Amino acid sequence: SDIKNDFINNMTHEFKTPISTIALATEMAEENALKSGSSARISRYLGIIKDENKRLGTQVEKVLQMALLDKGEVKLQQIHTDIHAVIEKVLGSHHVQIEQKSGEVALALSAENSVLVCDPMHIYNVINNLIDNAIKYSPDKLMLTIRTENQQNGLLVSIVDQGLGMNKEQQHRIFENFYRIPTGNLHDVKGFGLGLSYVQKMIEAHRGNVWVESELGVGSTFHIWLPILDS
Ligand code: ADP
User: Is the model more confident about 85 or about 192?
Assistant: First the structure.
């Protein structure tokens, strides 16, 4: 386990440096393109490089954070964060995918107090992973519902889909590292099987809970509960 963690840490570092160099170089190229009046096509290509590099950076950051979490070395930020705003932001970043699946999104953000003290980047990633999965594993029409309510001095967020669903045994295993349900290997559904493991580790690091209710062929609901700490 130590060797694995060292390997992940080193690999991650070896990825992070080139990713930030690419980000800087792309920014400079964009400035240059603007000044010299380059074609719209060049700007579009640069935009793609920037977006994809950002995506790569987020993935690498998640792997690094997981390795650090395993070693108990993650330092969480403690910032007042409005979870409703986080949900809206994540949805905004998925609007193209939602449109592609002729998705319908229903929001029932009923929690009166939606402000938590948490690490905003990680909680964004958690909600992002769950919404991303709901979209990925809804092969036909996407019907996504997101609910919030205050419960037991905390905030409950529920992300409901009517996608593939899963059986009991699968529900028990999906939070394991690298576990993917074999039928999840649909042609267009790619992943590493790390998303939910990250979600569970991060929610537990925030002293919360995550659990799933699901039925094969009917759909899944992922619940996360996070404490509202007085501060
Ligand atoms: P990934 O999506 O990268 O494979 P995750 O850890 O996020 O990894 O999920 C693990 C597995 O759990 C997925 O491969 C998929 O089979 C299953 N899964 C996750 N979310 C859903 C969902 N909303 N509906 C059906 N299956 C899901």
Answer: 85
C-alpha–C-alpha distance, residues 231 and 228, integer Å = 9
Ligand 1 pocket test target in 135, 144, 169, 180 with most atoms within 8 Å of CB: 180
Residue 111 CB-half CA count within 13 A: 25
Give the separation between CA 52 and CA 50, rounded to whole angstroms.
Answer: 6
Ligand 1, pocket-test mutation among 94, 131, 137, 179, most atoms within 8 A of CB: 137
Q: Which distant-in-sequence residues (6+ apart) come within 8 Å of 209 by Cβ?
A: 203, 223, 224, 225
Give the residue whose CA is nearest to atom 21 of ligand 1: 133
Tokens 């991060």 locate to: 202
- Residue 144 CA to ligand 1 centre (angstroms): 15
Q: What is the pLDDT of residues 109-151, one digit of tens each?
A: 999 999 999 999 999 999 999 999 999 999 888 999 999 999 9
Task: Give nearest CA residue, ligand 1 atom 7.
Answer: 195
> For 192-212, what is each residue's pLDDT tens digit?
788 999 999 999 999 999 999
For residue 2, the model assigns a pLDDT of 75
24: CA distance to ligand 1 center in Å?
Answer: 33
What pLDDT is recorded for position 182?
Answer: 79
CA distances from 117 to 46, 78, 83, 164 (A): 37, 5, 10, 34
Q: Is residue 118 helix, strand or coil?
A: strand
